[in-house]
Amino acid sequence: MSKEHYKFVVIGGGIAGVTCVETLETSNDDRILLLTASPLVKVIQNFKQISKVIEEFDVTEKKALELEQTCKNVTVHQEVVDNIDFDNKIISTKRKKFKYEYLCICTGGKPKLIAENNPYVIGIRDVETVQIFQKKLKSARKVLIVGNGGIATELAYELKGCDVIWAIKDSSITSTFVDAGAAQFFLPTLLNENQRQNKDEEGATICKRLKYGLEGTRDANDSNIFGGALGPDWASGLELIDKQDKKHVVQIEYSVEIDNIIENTDDESEFNIKVRLTNGKEYKVDFIVSATGVEPNTSLFSTTDAVKYASDGGVKVTDKLETGVKDVFAAGDVIYPDWKFSDQWIHMRLWTQARQTGHYAAKCMLAKSQDDFESISLDFCFECFAHSTRFFGYKVILLGKFNGQGLLKSEYEALIRLTKGEEYVKVILKDGRMQGAILVGETDLEEMCENLILNGTDLSSLGDDLLNPNIDIEDYFD
Ligand code: FAD
């Protein structure tokens, strides 16, 4: 089998891989190869730097080969990589072999399912899993959602036309992102039909981000290879609501896990399964959506002992995104950043960080190839965590250590401002300096909070007035 030779090879057509390829392309004339299992790749459009660290963008899906038209130095092969011989720098797929000089692995993650090989338990990860979900949803009357992150939150809000039981292991909803106070703020919108309808109508005018198409699926034989992960708005763009009856009934079961799933042979109700929760309650449902997070898809590293893994399964990378294998970098959901984080940055597997690490990996690869590695320092985006999204129809901005992550409870205090149905603001202060913020609604506080966090401004003299809507903090410090 002949080998094609490329200076730069990137594996993975998700946000991390595509951003890496695009960045390599803009500052280098050598040919670049993108290998991706999925026929569609994720491309970022309308990128907007809202402030120093808050960014917003749309994500579109493109046929993998279309990328070659916009990136002239890029060759795309839709191939599943089976094996990498890291000593000889050779990548093997079923049909071909490729030789690389510098490689970036961006293979993303795969859903962690609460039960493997159970036809009534589905995980949502990519376009194909959403198609399976939609098919099952058509005839569903009762669905159980397990998980408390972004996917579960979105589903609990979007699913209509069937009863929803939302089983979460924590004592408040959406706890991957927000605290119990914000969860309480959201609850009426989730549970109260009228309020929800108003928010939906508002949301329809505000929300302008991507609506995903359903074009293209991966090779059905490669059940372990996933397409690019979906991103925000995946649920609103897909017809989850295809029934006349659009009622939305959500029942939340707090502080529980799944104890047992059994096929329902009891009665004629035709529910497929009976689920027992750890609080002893039993529900008969059509199926379970397991939205319990993803685990890094690290299988391509199985042929080397040079990489180290974090406790969450991610491949540890240095502050130059090196994996430990010579000339092999990694970015996106597959990594765990193994460096001393700046005080206000945290790692989360989000598409913002997939973009940022993909971009930074390309810069590091280029510098390495030009013997200029020492000149590289961490991008500014790793100074302060920022995430902009929508939950339950509200704009949500998370900044810095928004939940006091990594801080002892005794070390920090929280100031909260709440206007029911409108906004929820929480800032975390340590020694009078802002460490993070949760901003829900149209608060217009994001830039101010970001500046106060980044500048480490001493706010002690302000006391509770920090969140007083009648005081203009920026004037205060002028
Ligand atoms: P992926 O997008 O997973 O891409 C991995 C790529 O690698 C794919 O193209 C795959 O085909 C390819 N690949 C894997 N193995 C091989 C192989 N052996 N050979 C060749 N190619 C291979 N993030 C947010 O910030 N906000 C949200 O609201 C949000 N909502 C989400 C909702 C859902 C339903 C899901 C699943 C995720 C959501 N995320 C969200 C997370 C976000 O989508 C991911 O963090 C991000 O997309 C990861 O990008 P990635 O490029 O690292 O990996």
Produce a short descriptive summary:
With 478 residues, this protein is an alpha/beta fold. The protein is 21% helix and 31% strand.
Please describe the structure with a list of short key phrases separated by commas or semicolons.
26 strands, 10 helices, about 475 residues, flavoprotein, alpha/beta, FAD/NAD(P)-binding domain, Enolase-like, domain 1, binds flavin-adenine dinucleotide
- Enumerate the spans where pLDDT stays under 50 for 5 or more consecutive residues: 203-222
Helix content: 10-25%
The CATH topology of the largest domain corresponds to FAD/NAD(P)-binding domain
> What would the average pLDDT be, to the nearest integer?
87
Tally of domains: 3
- Ends distance: 68 Å
The general outline is globular
Supply Rg: 23 Å
Under the CATH scheme, the architecture of the largest domain is 3-Layer(bba) Sandwich
Instruction: Just give the CATH class of the largest domain.
Output: Alpha Beta
Which percent range describes the beta-strand content?
Answer: 25-35%
Tally of alpha and pi helices:
10
Structural class: alpha/beta
Biggest sheet details:
7 strands, mixed
Protein name: Pyridine nucleotide-disulfide oxidoreductase domain-containing protein 1
Family: Belongs to the class-I pyridine nucleotide-disulfide oxidoreductase family. PYROXD1 subfamily.
Keywords: FAD, Flavoprotein
GO molecular function, one term: oxidoreductase activity
